[in-house]
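Researcher: Please predict.
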Amino acid sequence: MKKYICLLIAALILLSVFAACGDSAGGDDSQSSDDFRTFPGGSNQRADNDQSSSREVRTRPNGTQPQRASATSQVSEVSQAPEQTAPVRDENRNGSTPGNLVNGGLFVQKDGWIYYSNPADGSSLYRMKTDGSNDTKMNDDPTSFINVLDGWVYYVAGVARFRELHKVRIDGSGFATVIQNSLIDYLNVVDDTIYYLTENQFYTFKINGKAPNMIFEEVGASLSNMFISGNFVYFHDGLEVGFYRKRTNSGVLPKSRIRNVELLRSADMAGEWLYFSNNGDMDKFYKIRVDGLQKTQIADFPVKCINIRDGWIYFANMANGIFKMREDGTEMTRLTADNPEIALYNISVLEDRLYYNDNYALFTVRTDGTGQQNFR
């Protein structure tokens, strides 16, 4: 009985973070029975018919009333002219990578340890050494959006309509609830600041601060795919149907819309380029500069679970498994075997391995495509 309860909790966790990987866009992309698409390898196979969904959220963070920013609906377009930017943050000061967090934040590697959400044990928080030894359970919380920084593990605890912000020391001591009775999504910890979405609002506060500060509110919107890259927060707005960015320290300054990007399912950044699955073109793979120029299709088949690391783009194709390619679209390589019956979710990329969910089981494969095996 305990085994079945753990599997049920793990399934709920995967459903709650699935939108981060593949179902965040608005609109209906269902296809007729005669719709075929060209997949990797050159063969024509029937496309999967993912139905996009939006999240309904209602509960506000508990405690002190957040400070609200004015002029919340201000929007500008990203200028085509180069803009002056503040020095880009040291990526080592991020609690996780943007690509891992938009894929649900289920794995983090820091200082020789891997922290992860274990679907075989109700998605509880575990840690192990990079060689797989010293595998230890840290607590019983159903866990997602894991960030590790300065000796602390920050994570979202809970499933469905109950997701709180918790933290614990990397040795498992010092557990604390940071925000309770809420619905936390897309947790990002960067330097000394915590960012997250809840109730279609974007909050931020200092790690040692008291009250969360709401940077802006999108009433009735559907915010998703939120991540921090450089000095900007990027996010998709399903109501206004577009992808936006806003300086992390911009206060009431308007958000900027990235032109020529509307519906998308999955996205990640590399330098000044946004890579995304274009929901307006059957989820095919595109890239575009943040100034809205040079929109380019780099793969003529549907993709999801995009995750970029060290010059390589990792992504899933539902009918053909997991692939990688260079940022310019060259050297495409299949990493996992074909299996059209398997549903792929939430690709996490660590230093030399990928971890991914496969019909609620957990698998791993090296970044060169060897060593594929069941992990949990």
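Model: The CA atoms of residues 4 and 122 lie 9 Å apart.
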